[in-house]
Amino acid sequence: MGGLWKYMPWTYGTVLIGAIASAGVPGFAGFFSKDAIIEAVHLSKTPAPASRGLAVTACVFVTAFYTFRLCSTRFTEKSASNHTIMPRTSRPPWSPCRSYSSPFPLSARAG
């Protein structure tokens, strides 16, 4: 399964913006939430806050890696499956696109 960006460009764009926000890129909404979590762990009075801070930071990188891997494998890489199915599919109606893209401006500009 791959190469879906040709058939679902609006979905690809919203998933990519969501991946950028989820990765915690500065200027996007995810940056501030991840920064607050890392700062809260760093300032906590629990034993071994350094190791917990390291674990939280590692989780941020793992989340970013797998989210961008999803975008890469499903949308941009060449599909290994039979291509005869995709040309017969039709574009989804606008109503589902509107529902999943409505949070797009918030995640892109709330930061």
Can you walk me through this structure?
This protein has 111 residues and is mainly α. The chain has a domain at 1-77. Helices cover 65% and strands 0% of the residues. It has 5 helices and no strands. Helix 1 (9-23) runs antiparallel to helix 3 and helix 2 (29-43) runs antiparallel to helix 3 (49-76). The longest helix has 28 residues, at 49-76.
Topology record:
Elements: H1 9-23, H2 29-43, H3 49-76, H4 94-101, H5 104-109
Helix pairs in contact: 1-3, 2-3
Brief account:
This protein has 111 residues and is mainly alpha-helical. It is 65% helix and 0% strand.
**Overall strand count:** 0
Outline type? elongated
Sketch the topology as an H/E string, one letter per element.
HHHHH
On the 0 to 100 scale, the average pLDDT is 76
Sheet/helix structural class:
mainly alpha
Helix content: 55-70%
Strand-residue fraction? under 5%
The parts where pLDDT drops under 50 for at least 5 residues are none
Distance between the termini: 33 Å
Number of helices: 5
Largest sheet: none
Radius of gyration: 18 Å
List the defining traits of the structure above.
elongated, 111 residues, 65% helix, mainly alpha
